[in-house]
Backbone:
């Protein structure tokens, strides 16, 4: 019994089964669905279907592509927002913190 030996492609080359010639992608086709959440249907071998609803956890924020170019990770976004917060007058910051704390207590 002979087995076919899989030969890895050279660096930068794709396997022949991944031939995408003649294919055209549509940028942002599923962008809004990903932002709103989505449902996955997995047909299992026993005939049942596993359905999983995927939603963004509370507090998750999605950056638009033009903003993402400048802020590649949460650390960069948080640093920029903290710098922006420092520009808000202290009186307004204290009032905002008090309102936020009151909302948390009332929940």
Residues:
């Amino acid at each position: 019994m002979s087995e076919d030996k899989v030969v890895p492609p050279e660096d930068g080359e794709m396997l022949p089964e991944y031939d995408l010639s003649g294919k055209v992608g549509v940028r942002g086709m599923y962008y809004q669905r990903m932002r709103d959440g989505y449902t996955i249907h997995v047909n299992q071998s026993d005939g049942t279907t596993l359905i999983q609803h995927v939603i963004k956890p509370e507090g998750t924020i999605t950056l638009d592509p033009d903003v993402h170019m400048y802020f590649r990770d949460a650390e960069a976004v948080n640093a920029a927002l903290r710098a922006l917060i420092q520009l808000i007058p202290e009186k307004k910051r204290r009032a905002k913190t008090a309102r936020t704390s009151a909302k948390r207590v009332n929940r």
